[in-house]
Design brief:
mainly alpha, 218 residues, 71% helix
Amino acid sequence: MTPSATPAYRRLSVEERRSQLLGAALNLFAHRAPEDVSLDDVAEEAGVSRPLVYRYFPGGKQQLYEAALRSAAEELQQCFDEPLEGPLLRRLSRALDRYLAFVDEHDTGFSALLQGGSVVETSRTTATVDGVRRAAAEHIYRHLGVTGPGPRLRMTVRTWITAVEAASLIWLDEDKQPPVEELRDWLVEQFVAVLTVTAARDPQTAALVGTLAGDGRD
């Protein structure tokens, strides 16, 4: 009897199968630019047939990419979901540890995600990425104990988030040097530095810097 050319796969629930396909796609997008990944690649990675991938993602590669991006965005947002306990800078360090671990794991995919220019980039994918930035900012405001951040504080926090993204991309380009622990500490110091500069012009930020003066991470 001639073996079937169709890959064998175990029967899974709809959600389990969808999760499996997303996991396969994320693993590929983590190491290649989105335009270099095909549905055949995803099917092979998941050990299923191409028609099965289409059954779950009838919109093809674009739909699969957007779904994978949303999944990655949810994971990134969780990086900043730190309990409101202990010194603020220690909390920020732990959040950055998770963020940089994500960057390290996803590497090429992270670069493609933030730098844009992909042939599969749309207004929806751009909104997904910006949603991660907004969520990170909201987490930081909560850790700062601020419910109504003023324009200067908002600008400062969003600018620092952009700096974290830029530093992460450069770190990947520099073969992940300096060591990740040094990069994390530098980014925490950058956070304190930009708040200190803003504090000279903004009473709300000045009050926050005063509370950070005695904060430690050791």
